[in-house]
Amino acid sequence: MKLQRQIANGNWVEVSRDNQEYFLSKCVTFLSLSLEEVCRKLHLGKPLSYDSDWYANLRDVEAVNALQQQQEAKRRSPDRDYPTGRRLSCGHTVYFSAHIMSTSSGPSCMDCYDRMS
Ligand SMILES: [Zn+2]
User: Fold this and answer.
1) Which of 95, 1, 112, 80 is nearest to 48 (CA)?
2) Global pTM?
């Protein structure tokens, strides 16, 4: 976990290791959650308030970055059955299970179906 807190100008600044416990416990008190719940939410990439000021937010920047990467990957490959592709016996790679044909020599793409079957 790598905590950041927001400051009044809207920027995020790193919370030093010595201060992490302090801000986490402020979150626990302000949100009436257990420390476990606070950590779990931060781990999901959610910013949490630790005080009533609009900018008094805490986040785990590692989780936020991971979440952004996931969303970016999803945006690039919407609803693919195999997000990173699946290599078939014919040597081609497909991204959707509907593009896989079953042949006697293994799964092939639609283009190779005639050649393989
Ligand atoms: Zn093929």
Assistant:
1) 1
2) 0.63
Which residues 6+ apart lie within 8 Å of 100 measured at CB? Answer: 86, 88, 94, 107, 108, 109
Instruction: Please indicate, yes or no, whether residues 56 and 96 belong to a single structural domain of this protein.
Output: no
Q: Measured in angstroms, how far is the CA atom of residue 92 from the centroid of ligand 1?
A: 4
63 and 92 in a single domain? The answer is no
Ligand 1: distance of its center to the CA of 82 in Å? 16
The model's pLDDT over 21-69, given as tens digits with 9 standing for 90+, comes to 999 999 999 999 999 999 999 999 999 999 999 999 999 999 999 999 9
Q: Which of 4-13, 37-46, 61-70, 76-85 shows the lowest per-residue confidence on average (mean pLDDT)?
A: 76-85
Question: Domain span at residue 18?
Answer: 3-73
The rounded Å distance from CA 77 to ligand 1 centre is 20
Determine the Cα–Cα distance for residues 92 and 18; give it in Å rounded to an integer: 53
Q: Structure tokens of 48?
A: 């949490």
Helix (H) / strand (E) containing 4 = strand 3-6
Pairing of strands 93-94, 100-103: unpaired
